[in-house]
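Recall the central idea of this unit: under ordinary conditions, the amino acid sequence of a chain determines the structure it adopts. In this exercise we apply that idea directly, starting from the sequence alone.
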Amino acid sequence: MPDWRDGLNADPLDWLLEPGDPGPRHLALRQLLDRPADDREVVAARAAAMAAAPIAPILGAQHREGYWVQPGRGYGPKYSGTVWSLMFLDQMGADGSDPRIRRGCEYVLEFTQTSSGGFGASAGGAGRAAPSGVIHCLNGNLLRAMIGFGYLEDERVLRSLAWQARAITGEGMERWYGYTPGPGFRCGVNDSKPCAWGAIKALLALTRVPPEARDPAVARALNAGVEFLLSCDPAVADYPRPSRTSAPSGSWFRLGFPSGYIADVLQNLEALCEAGAAADPRLDHAFEWLLRQQDDRGRWANRYSYHGKMVQDVDAQGRPSKWVTLRACRVLKARSVADSSTRAPQPD
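Accordingly, the structure predicted from this sequence is:
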């Protein structure tokens, strides 16, 4: 059976599993080796990751009330404020049962969630976010984090999920607010054209809902996201963009970690693989592009690291990154598994 490492220049797994970097080790054990959450080594790695950089310094900068840097809706300052710190902690695999994570989630649900159900970026009344500031990318990032931290059954998170589905399909939406003036991922920041970055963040949130828990609205929204992202070659990323730009943003092609509102080719692959499209031949060029980005040791560099902008730096800009390499290995594994399933003989 083909192995996901077959296309690599070298095997990075031992490097990813080094005990000295418990964050990547924890996620590699879970996502690449399929160890269960209660596995002894997983439990130890998760505990070590919570006590080490970059997770521990970010949690250490949290105020007792649950926010980071300044009170309120948490969008500012980029990229050290409340919403950024919380979504980055989710991407790092932080333990959602930790009381500090719970305080952060509760703070976001109080001050960042709007009356529409979506999470907003702009100011509203009494320090809370205004519905006019709800945007696909922010809502998708925070919704994914909330689900990852164990809040899927919370009524407030279900409202955000319902908003996300409606904002994609247009079903039952009586009014479109500022940055999301219409269905199909349209965004005011993108000249009211469909925004692929927003679509990727939204799709990553929707795919975190277990299939058995997806209602028809979520399923339709998820299918719409897959259709839109596959409407262009992800390796080219020639999606709708503001009229003032003549080419896709260069950020598409700078793989990084963590991920804010910007998305890259790899995160597009992550979203589509999680949505079940890993074997789609329209992803062939993107996977070929991804393999060309590795070095001779089978490692990927962090070319969008937010260095100096976060509470705690993760990687040195341009250097080989365990976090980015883990991201790449995860989608290569998904592709390998999907291809094996496609080739498997079917019963008569």
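The domain at 13-339 is CATH 1.50.10 (Glycosyltransferase).
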